[in-house]
């Protein structure tokens, strides 16, 4: 039995290592060199070469980089006025390399000639090597930005403004931790623009210029609106000792909208509530952020069971949302359902199959154990079918414990007071 447990642990470590290596590899973004062959035409051979170079730049790095680079090249190579002949092809190449600061690393003329007739154009075929900035694989995910958080007019005070900034920052943290989206920054554009401007100053490697023109747009913007965000304090005073006992009730209500940038279509609209009894605005903000990120993830890509190792279930999500002790219902995915009125997909049929509890997690994955079987006969079922996780509504959610009624809260307060009386009869 001990030997089996040891093997299971080894297998688990191997799986985690492979996942970690794969994720680390995807984070890399580097400059590579692409060689292409392009043809061009012009009144002079130089013009034909420049035309071919522009086509090569456009193919590798896009129209924006091509246009900017060719403007610089044209200005540089026409500096001799009417004397447009160069001592050698090397001189012309050096002139181009200097003008573009390495956007074109090298080129070779494969074919060159002029057609018959006085007005015939020069035709060239060249082989060009161009540096290209290879973006991270993460940009292939759905791209989301969180531009700002809106406040209901009467909430526009310093405390709520501070909380809004904290919620925004933590929502970005939570969505990034899911590793299911590419989160695009909209707060530090001036800083990144300043850094990119430095590349044009001439103090960097020539090929670093390939980093220009790679900023991306987003698929969706997430716009939360805070309707209420407050913490109330109630104090009870002992009639016998004069001691005061304070309790706190933090409540936040936030509406979120996920909007398709291309069409302005609202893809998701939801109102969320979070509660906290610590008296801390920061902890209340934590729970609001977790609620928002979970609403987005569960609507688009809920966590899944991706592997079964012994009795350990490997989940494809980690981070703060998958803290040890949290419970989730698991659902087996069935056939795809369609709306008979619109013929649109409604997602897949989900059958409640059990309850799992998180044992431990990393920033990328987590491990859970099955604590309740509903429609699961064996662990083999979990390996053969596709299961997703949904937060257990009976347990503590991201936004706090299941909300109690006023009567329940009063009863619990009275019970605590009675206990205090018994512990210190002389004081009461």
Could you list the spans in which at least 5 consecutive residues all have pLDDT below 50? 1-27, 81-87, 401-407, 424-428
Q: How many DSSP helices? A: 9
Please write the string of helix (H) and strand (E) elements: HEHHHEEEEHEHEEEHEEEEEHEH
Structural class: alpha+beta
Under CATH at level 1, the class of the largest domain stands as: Alpha Beta
Tell me what portion of residues adopts beta-strand conformation: 25-35%
Question: Considering DSSP H and I runs of 4 or more, what fraction of the residues is helical?
Answer: 25-40%
CATH topology of the largest domain: Rossmann fold
Q: What oligomeric state do the depicted chains represent?
A: single chain
Give your account of this protein's structure.
With 428 residues, the protein is of the alpha+beta class. The chain has three domains: 31-133, Flavin-binding protein dodecin (Dodecin subunit-like, 2-Layer Sandwich), CATH 3.30.1660; 137-238 and 246-301, ABC-type transport auxiliary lipoprotein component (Rossmann fold, 3-Layer(aba) Sandwich); 303-398, Thrombin, subunit H, CATH 2.40.10.410. Helix content is 34%, strand content 33%. The chain has nine helices and 15 strands. The chain has helices spanning 2-27, 45-61, 63-77, 89-100, 158-178, 189-198, 281-300, 379-384, 406-423, and strands spanning 30-42, 106-114, 122-134, 142-145, 150-151, 181-183, 220-237, 244-260, 266-276, 305-309, 312-315, 327-338, 345-361, 366-373, 387-391. Strands 4, 5, 6, 7, 8 and 9 form a six-stranded mixed β-sheet that branches. The two termini are 57 Å apart. Mean pLDDT is 78; it is low at 1-27, 81-87, 401-407 and 424-428.
